[in-house]
Amino acid sequence: MRELQDAGYEAFIVGGSVRDLLLGKIPKDFDVATSATPEEVQAVFPRCRLIGRRFRLAHVRKGGALIEVATFRGSAAAGGDHEKSNGRILRDNVFGTVEEDAIRRDFTINALFLDPVSGEIRDYVGGYEDLAQRRLRLIGDPEVRYREDPVRLLRAARFEAKLGVMPDESTEAPIRTMAPLLKDVPPARLFEEVCKLFLTGHGVRSMEALQRFGLSTSLFPGLKKGSGRGKIQLGVVLRKTLENTDERIRKSLPVTPAFLWAALLWQPVSDRSRALVEAGESEYNAMMSASEEVIFRQGQSTSIPRRFSAVTRQIWIMQIRFQRTRGKRWKRLLHEQRFRAAYDFLLLRAMEDPSLEPLCEFWTKAQEGMDFSRNSLKARTDRKSRPRNRYRRRAPTS
Ligand code: ATP
Ligand code: MG
Question: Within 6 Å (CB) of ligand 1, which residues are found?
Answer without folding.
Answer: 15-16, 31, 105-106, 110-111, 149, 151-152, 196
